[in-house]
Specification:
43% helix; Uracil-DNA Glycosylase, subunit E; six-stranded mixed β-sheet; 9 helices; 6 strands; alpha/beta
């Protein structure tokens, strides 16, 4: 997909006033990475550093994300990184439902344009949104879920590993190793959720071309 399409979408997001976060942001944090990346990271929302710089995951959580990816042979310039929300919630509070609803169209378009083979969701908000589930990240993680012709691999947000210590960090390492296996062997079955569980977690594999802008999250 042409990087021009992403640039035009970013320009549209830069002037978005669809929710109240437009009044408090410093910068819209649209996303960063290659337009044809095979792997996409999706976090929750920008923090203070991201709001100031206009780029996702540039603080301590971002450095940990980079390190975990590098441990399985994936560099930052090989992925596309985005968030559910493009603007920082004041005080880094949790995203509100109306803010997610107002912003998720941009994320849906990013996924369609980039068309990654694997999406790694970082934390509860991104994982629950994509997989259409109320199940928490502790139970969701550790599995690759078929999702609109690709795979979603949920894991903890890097900030949780910074707070939660070695146990969370070790679980994240396992999830990154799973991403590496899925990228290398997408047809392998041992890391894929059982068919009877898919309905609870989200949609099964479907051709991306059959989806409209918001069907990912409908």
């Amino acid at each position: 997909m042409s990087s021009d399409d992403l640039r035009l979408l970013a320009e549209e997001a830069a002037i978005c006033v669809a929710c109240g976060l437009a009044e408090t942001r410093t910068n819209v944090v649209f996303g960063v990475g290659g337009a044809n990346a095979d792997l996409m990271f999706i976090g929750e929302a920008p923090g203070r550093n991201e709001d100031l710089r206009g780029e996702p995951f540039v603080g301590a959580a971002g450095r940990l994300l980079d390190r975990l990816a590098e441990e399985v042979g994936i560099s930052r310039d090989e992925v596309y990184i985005a968030n559910v929300l493009k603007c920082r919630p004041p005080g880094n509070r949790d995203p509100r439902e109306e803010e997610i609803e107002a912003c998720k169209g941009y994320l849906a378009q990013q996924i369609k344009l980039i068309n990654p083979a694997v999406v790694m969701t970082l934390g509860n908000f991104a994982s629950k949104l994509l997989l259409k589930t109320s199940t928490g990240i502790t139970r969701l993680r550790g599995t690759a879920y078929p999702w609109w012709g690709r795979f979603v691999v949920p894991t903890f947000h890097p900030a949780a590993a910074l707070r939660g210590g070695e146990r969370v960090l070790n679980d994240m390492r396992k999830d990154f190793a799973l991403v590496r296996r899925v990228l290398d062997e997408p047809a392998a079955e041992e890391h894929v959720i059982a068919p009877q569980e898919r309905a609870e977690a989200g949609p099964g594999a479907t051709s991306l071309q059959e989806t409209t802008q918001l069907e990912f999250f409908a």
